[in-house]
Amino acid sequence: MKFRVIILLFVCTIFFSHSVMAKPQSTMTELNHLADEALQLTKFGRFEEAKNLLEQFGEIFAKQGPSSNKLTMDELRVVTAVHHEALKALTSVTLSHEDRVKQVTAFRLATDAITSQYQPLWFGMEDTIMDSFQNVKNAALEGDTVLYNEELNDFLTKYAMIQPSLKIDLSVEKVQKVDSKITYIDRYRSSFAEQTWLKELDQIEKELKSLFSGAQKDDTDPSIWWVIMMTGGIIVTTLSYVSWRQYRGEKKFKKSSKKRKI
Q1: If pLDDT is split at 50, 70 and 90, which confidence band does 16 have?
Q2: What InterPro entries does the entry give (predicted)?
Q3: Helix %, strand %, coil % for the chain, to 5?
Q4: Long-range contacts of residues 93-98, Cβ cutoff 8 Å, at least 24 apart
């Protein structure tokens, strides 16, 4: 009997927690799908349709996104900002097709970062980012200032695509540390000096590698821990109560047995 009670309580707890979390999860899944569709349409040059999807995303996110207990204020700000930039890119008459795709890609990667429970999409860009940065280093080794500036511009463009996602998935301190170094070599590129710059580039390369090595997410949804703890608490309480009842019953039985013998 006691095991039936425990199983019933367990099922009820799971059902309750699922019903509480279903709506936010469903909303985020829908937003993630809209972002993916918008990116695909952008790649095919169907900017007006992509813009409509982004506007739909904005409406849903404004109404339901902030109500999700999974999003922090920093994540809300990042997604809002990257969504605005993507929408602006799609409505721009001066941006090239390639630049529009890059802006919408940054948005797509950010939305995945807030919904992904496993490896985020931006993590798959490690080779692209590291190869691009290696080209910057090669140009520095050659002492070719023109080539160095071209490769640095290419790297900065690619890094900008994953930067919003980094802010969502990694600590502020870690991202700021890399950003400050990248900003430094970008701002003072005119004073390029091969030996000095190579030391800076080597350090940035190490920092970039550390970003990707720290990108592994915890596979367990934090809300699951709440369910486990709640269910565990119910089971422990139930077992304790059943054991106490059994103990009381055995005690009464022993007393009644003694009385009969007397």
Answers
A1: very low
A2: Spore_YpjB
A3: 85, 0, 15
A4: 97/45
* pLDDT band, very low/low/confident/very high, at 3 (cuts 50, 70, 90): very low
What is the length of the chain?
262
3-state secondary structure of 262: coil
Q: And the tokens for 234?
A: 């119910």
Give the three-class secondary structure for 184. helix
Residue 31: what residue type?
L
User: pLDDT at position 98, please?
Assistant: 96
Q: How far apart are CA 213 and CA 21, in angstroms?
A: 30
Burial class (CB in 10 A: 0-12, 13-18, 19+), 90: buried
For tokens 């940065």, the residue is: 133
204's tokens: 């940035």
The residue ranges of every structural domain in the chain are 27-115, 119-216
CATH architecture for residues 119-216: Up-down Bundle (1.20)
Global pTM?
Answer: 0.72
